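Quarterly update from the structural biology core.
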Amino acid sequence: MRVLIRRRRISSLALAFGIGALAARSPRAEDAFLPLQAATPGSFNYARLSDIQVFLDASPSRCSVFLTDGQEIKAFQKCASITEHLEQIGLVSFPNAFGRVLLAPSFVTSMVSIGKETCRLNLRNGRWAPVDLPCSKVHDAFP
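Predicted structure, tokenized:
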């Protein structure tokens, strides 16, 4: 019984290690939720830091935030303005068509070439994120 509980704890910690580990290091460590600008000016949506897998610049003025359960929250701001206060230890950043993709490598299950200079990062939650680099360069950037 103790071994099973210990394995579950280790699995939970491994999943949360990526971006979730940043919650303790952010200036707002007491708040486990990250505010994301909603479509209505002055309104915010919130995502738990430990459940965020990817920040993806999806347009010139919008950031898509992918969660571990497969949901996507659209933030009406650039990803850099959301993540600038986070210590990005353990996260990697890659260029994409509209800016950057910022993610924890532990959430990537595979890398698939979808063009000469484009790689699709398949995520644990069943979603994927395109980056404007060959998969070999993406692979080399992972720790």
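Strands lie at 33-37, 44-48, 52-59, 62-67, 72-75, 92-96, 99-103, 108-115, 118-123, 128-131.
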